[in-house]
Amino acid sequence: GFGWSLVYLIFEVLGAALAAVMFRFIRPEDFGGDRGGAVAELGSEFLGTFMLVFTVGLNVLGKSPAGAYSIAAALMSMIYALGNVSGAHFNPAVTLAIYMSGRCPEDAPAKTSAKARMFILVQLVAGMIAAMAYSSVYEGGSFRLGNGTDYGGNDIRIKTAEFIFTFVLCYVVLCVAVSTSTHNPTMFGLAIGACVTVGGNAIGAISGGSLNPAVSFGIATAHRFQEGSLSAAFVYTLFELAAGWFAAVVFSVTHAVDKAKDAGEEEESP
């Protein structure tokens, strides 16, 4: 009735106010201040990872028939919103791939190992908090990490599926967001989001299509680390991080032209 419309209105206004506060916190330069630096970058990674994992949980618990598309849209919107703040990694495997690629600009978030470690820590914490949030929305509801039958990661299919499609995600990130040759400043968010759609639909019935250690540990956290969820999260994370590393290795081969191009530009510069 009318009373509930007022309740909705109050929470919608609160949501808008929180968005304004976060916008000012992450982008102080838009309000006459200096760039937020590391604090703003970590806040960006926290917000983007939180929204990604929160969306994952709500789709699964809500039994959405289009979960992969919804999750990809959440990732894509956060990439476009926060990409020029922190690089919009939102995934420890992506952070590792970017750091290992060695192709970051000097001011890129993952240029130093210390900052890369901070990114990964914030992403994992954000994933766990988001998981508790979606669980509270469904009054303590949770689900096991995996495909609903084998969630311990013992099935070689699960390991293979997570490795291959996390590799696809990380490799595409490197190609469209890092490479100086194939970088696409307009469509990069769409390309990266499409990887989640592809992976979610292709391997959702095999491994659940996590593709992200923050998602894996988030799901395990919401499930209270029961029924082998914690060990499963470690197995998933191992193969997801290995995929990020391998994506950097392959990228160094396929995009070796980047280094030659950069070297040529340095020689031409006075």
Summarize the structure in words.
- The structure is a single chain.
- The chain has 270 residues and is mainly alpha-helical.
- It has helices spanning 2-26, 37-61, 67-86, 92-101, 113-137, 156-178, 188-203, 213-222, 229-254, 257-268.
- Helix 3 packs antiparallel against helix 7.
- The longest helix is centred in the last third of the chain and has 26 residues, at 229-254.
- The protein is globular and about 65 Å long.
Write the layout of secondary structure elements.
Elements: H1 2-26, H2 37-61, H3 67-86, H4 92-101, H5 113-137, H6 156-178, H7 188-203, H8 213-222, H9 229-254, H10 257-268
Helix pairs in contact: 2-3, 2-5, 2-8, 3-7, 4-5, 4-6, 4-9, 5-8, 6-7, 6-9, 8-9
Descriptive terms for the model:
10 helices; 270 residues; globular; mainly alpha
- Rounded Rg: 19 Å
Q: How many distinct helices?
A: 10
Order of helices and strands: HHHHHHHHHH
Report the oligomer.
Answer: single chain
Cα(first) to Cα(last) distance is 71 Å
Characterize the largest beta sheet: strand count, sense, and whether it forms a barrel.
none
Unreliable segments of 5+ consecutive residues: none
Q: Which overall shape is indicated by the principal axes computed on the Cα atoms? A: globular
- Overall pLDDT confidence: 90
Strand segment count: 0
Helix content: over 70%
Beta fraction: under 5%
Quick recap of the structure?
With 270 residues, the protein is mainly alpha-helical.
